[in-house]
Amino acid sequence: MYSAIASSKPYRFIIGPQRRKFTIHSAIVARQSDYLEKLVNGDFKEGNEKTVHWENVDEETFVCFWQYAYTGSYDIPREEPKITQAVPGEGSEDGDEMESPKYTSEIIDELLKSRRHEEGRDEGSRPSARDWEWGWRKNTKSAAEERPKKPSNRGRLWELFTALRPTVENEAEVKSEQKNEGYDFDASDLLCHARVYVFADCHGILNLMKLSYDRIHQTLRNLDLRTETLASIIDLDDIIALVDYCFETPAPPDLKELVVLYSACNIEKLWADEQFQHIIETHGDLSRAVIASLLRR
């Protein structure tokens, strides 16, 4: 097997608008998916010339794929990342643009007030969405001591989120990586993992889809914004960039579901950010999905 791989012709990938060139052994590329096998060995231009130009793939995502193709895993570069932040309005040209519902802000504010009342927290006057985290922190100890065995509405939604599509073999690898790197729940990795997932979905690389999905899932599980020790050190911009990316690009439904459930579980913290409010109000499908999830709390 190794001799066949080593002796196979190099396949050249021209990546991004800068047209940077990368090569991978043809046999390695062909093993990744049926789509890539046809790309490499098919009787058409890309197969005959052993070259393809992927203008819309960024270099960082491709390097992750390159490493995965040879090793079965990938690392996110820690030096000089070349991530391009998602720009509002630059989604899929072919995608349907949904009109966001009017008064989305008012709807979510009312849902937050209603859910706080149902939770029955004894905090005196009820804080607004922007002040919620302070009121919750003040009463964390007493709430934990008096919490009944039955999980709260928010707790049940979080359990639903944590139970999404576990894949044991990859989850163990993710936890091992985090252990080796220390306290590394780096939210800045989320966007890269999401791009790898969308890339893998586009090219039918199922195992890479599982791996990148689990890394997103595990990272978000470790970034519970209602956890006092994490709330003050998490950069919301990275989480909000993930949400924006998933609804500005044609991301797969299961990735959107993951992001929606996480947003609903942590809506009090996220809603205090004006950028998140703007994204919610801009994307009607996102706002409807988050509101539907909040109604389950």
From TrEMBL:
InterPro entries: BTB/POZ_dom, SKP1/BTB/POZ_sf. Residues 9-78 form the BTB domain. SUPFAM superfamilies: POZ domain (SSF54695). It comes from the Eukaryota. PANTHER family: BTB DOMAIN-CONTAINING PROTEIN (PTHR47843:SF2), BTB DOMAIN-CONTAINING PROTEIN-RELATED (PTHR47843). This is BTB/POZ fold protein. It comes from Metarhizium anisopliae (strain ARSEF 549).
